[in-house]
Input
Amino acid sequence: MSKIKKHKECPKCGESNLGDFWQKGRKLKQVCREYECNWEGKARTPEKCKIESTKVIPAGQFSGYSYNVFDKYGHALISSRTYNSRAKAKSELLKDMKRGKTDKNAGPYTGVLWPSTVTVTGRVYK
Output
């Protein structure tokens, strides 16, 4: 029994614009996407793919670094805008934190600098 291999380019027209479509029996069929070619391969057993259990996701609502500043009681005072760099976000955070040294009612402040993204790991079940 010969194994059907995945093509890198179309055997009919030579283009690399190929795609896969699922077929009956959990098989894949490779096809050429070029307008006038219409080549279709035979259904094959799919290649094994590595199952990833980690992913990188945005930490905030928008892409970038942000911070929060809290008063001495732990209540929120400031929710920052989003910054493109960690250094700029930290610089702005430290400016806001400086005001907490002289704020007799709410100071000293506590700040939290949030990363742009976080990496999470899921649990794999078999």
